[in-house]
Amino acid sequence: MKNCAMSYPYQINSFEEYQKVYKESVENPEAFWASVAEHFVWKKKWDKVLDWNFTEPKNEWYKGGKLNITENCLDRHLAERGNVPAIIWESNDPNEKQRILTYSMLHKRVCQFAQVLINNGVQKGDRVCVYMGMIPELAIAILACARIGAIHSVIFGGFSAQSIADRLYDAQSEFIITCDGAFRGGKDIPLKSVIDDALIGNRTVKKVIVYTRTRTPISMIKGRDVWWEDEMRHVEEMGIKEMDAVEMDAEDPLFILYTSGSTGKPKGVVHACAGYMVYTNYTFVNIFNYQPGQIHFCTADIGWITGHSYIVYGPLSAGATSLMFEGVPTWPDAGRFWEIVDKYKVNILYTAPTAIRSLMSYGLGPFQGKDLSSLKVLGTVGEPINEEAWHWYNENVGKKKCPIIDTWWQTETGGCLITNLAGITPSKPGWATLPMPGIQPILVDEKGVEITEAEDGVFKGNLCIKFPWPSLLRTTYGDHERCRTNYFATYENLYFTGDGALKDENGFYRITGRVDDVLNVSGHRIGTAEVENAINMHAGVIESAVVGYPHDVKGQGIYAYVIYSNTHGDEELTRKDILQTVTRMIGPIAKPDKIQFVNGLPKTRSGKIMRRILRKIAEGEIENLGDTSTLLDPGVVEEIKNGHI
Ligand code: WT7
Question: pLDDT tens across 119-132, in order?
Fold first, then answer.
């Protein structure tokens, strides 16, 4: 088995088997996770499966084990699957030729680029920032980091120079891998120029490696900036075709990925080599019921955790074929996904409810002439899926023949925690259903007491997990205390997800959304405090409060209440100015959809903004605001209600 990923002995094949495996996994988690980990390539076996406590918190898996994740994603497939496509890449432009990288080709490129990193001074443990579009070189870049033990920190291409600068500083990154630009739909995004802005005043970054994608004119600073192509040619001339993978400890960090929380500053979630590898592989194989040879198309960007886990590490460690798409679902038209499914005979499609809702609005025309009969499994991720979207997906994409999996998880969890298994366990529209083996969810009240009383057969509470699993985050980079207070301090001995959930009499879970001040806009996670900080940077803004409201396509929209000093100006222009500031501070993804100018915000006597009221008004629920008697000045509520947009 060791060197062949063609079968998955730990793949669950029936509901009964799921129930049996689940029971074993919670009765004896260590034996269970050891049995899964047997099926990977280790340079040295582990000494201890698990060492944990949720107070520090400590969460260590496969301690003493030595490995390199890239040997599991690449080398072990070479003998039997060297000529199998690892990555199929579809360009933004439907007329540009696709690229196919077999496992052998990907292995060679990763080794060569690993040598490039070494030639440029990157060492094990160094943090490498990756800011690229969705091209195979992005996968090559992160795998090359993993090959030499450098810690990658991928930043989504929609973040601003200021966001990059903050993340470079937080991770103390000395190296950047980027592109001249990226194509996304009808736009060219000038990535290198954003990096240049992020580097103004920066003294820590030593090297910037630039891949040519758009051939946009860019500045290249002597001594600091080098071209990817030149560096690769040099390595090719050195005759380098392979390179040994650096031996890593099971618990060495594999990557950092920044994500938003309820504070103003994103945190660097850290995942470790072995546990992340085991869990992403295990979930990939089981959730999608992946069969060797199938083509898996996850439409996420590698800038988010979904891309890390289910475009790169999960599929490649399973020897699968992963389809990577550079573009967007609606360009040049809304039939783009269906064209890709038809062109490559895609078997598994994994996308976000927001993409489904956006495609729904184009009607059925875009399906014309597209053969979707290759599809076997459909998946969704990132936000709750409304029933209308679920049925549309089921009827028009899956033709009622494909199981739909609703996968709930988070950047911090590394892989899916609650989901049905495609075709194996039951589904229920809008419900993520059952926990994966090894995952022990619990619903608690505000005080952390387990919810034991059902209302109309449904339990309702805050979703926590009471036992660790291999890909639970290890820390937040550079600030372990922050990891503790954010996730492990709200409720004693529990990992708190920040989500609210329901549980029905079958034990199925439905995730209802965040209960903290985090928004989910088009599947992108944004902290209200972050947006407020950005708005408050704008000259003239005195104070602001940001809340979410239901949005037909985005899931949630951003509603900002702003106290502005100079009201005699042009309001519309001021709104645009504020959007510019948010774009500059965070990125266009965080731009409020609505800005309402107000004279005051509803505050308690202790000065706390009552967001509950602001949320209600933003949702258009003007009449039933609940108790406002504790407000310092109930009068402001009337004014805000009247100005509601
Ligand atoms: C938050 C995590 C998981 C990868 C993409 C997002 C929400 C995620 C679902 C789902 C309902 C979901 C939660 C979660 N979420 N999946 N299937 N049903 N809500 O990762 O950016 O870390 O966001 O996304 O609120 O906490 P993320």
Answer: 999 999 999 999 99
